[in-house]
Amino acid sequence: MRKVSRTVNRVLLGLTGLFLIGVGGTVLLGGLDLPGKWGFGMPSGWRWSRPEDVLLRDADRTRWTGHGWWWPVVIAVLAVLVLLALWWLLAQFRRHRLGEILVDSGDDEGAHVRGRAMESVLTAESESLEGVERARVVLTGRRTEPRLRAGLALAPHAEPCAVVARLSSETIAHARTSAGLERLPAEVRLRAVKHRAERVS
User: Fold this and answer.
1) Domains identified in the chain and CATH numbers
2) 135: buried, middle or exposed (CB in 10 Å: 19+, 13-18, 0-12)?
3) Residue 58: in which H helix or E strand, if any?
4) pLDDT of the residue at 157
5) Which pTM does this prediction carry?
6) CA distance 2 to 98
């Protein structure tokens, strides 16, 4: 399903890009008067062949405005386009999170673990490490080959190397063992928590 989603995204983006490049190129040809300068003609009836041409003529813009159905249709179409764009945008964010993990239960069927549940456990265990103020863990990838992305906010006294070492040897190792995974690649981002300067009297 994810492979199909990626393919659809690439096809849609490719077609949209080709359309925008084509329209932009034809408008640029007419705006810079390249047909006249370079000595080639545009197809008969072509609108954008001279710098004084406009994208939409007055007759085109006002052809249907006198009809009562025109503005409701325009508003409805624009609303649908906006909703589709928002749905596609939200789908991109949801697509990156892993919904479930397939755990080898030894019965040749396997068990499913919710990705959000495992993320919550990983987050809680990461925040229990010394020097970690806050943590955010997200699982990505495929359900048989999950990947881990962790963002850790470190306290001022924390040692980044020690925190990463414990995260790898404890938190990630526990998750890998409990899920029966051979490997659990991880990407860890660290940042320091801002704190007020202490006054010395």
Assistant:
1) 2-60+70-95 (no CATH), 100-192 (3.30.300.30)
2) buried
3) helix 58-61
4) 86
5) 0.51
6) 11
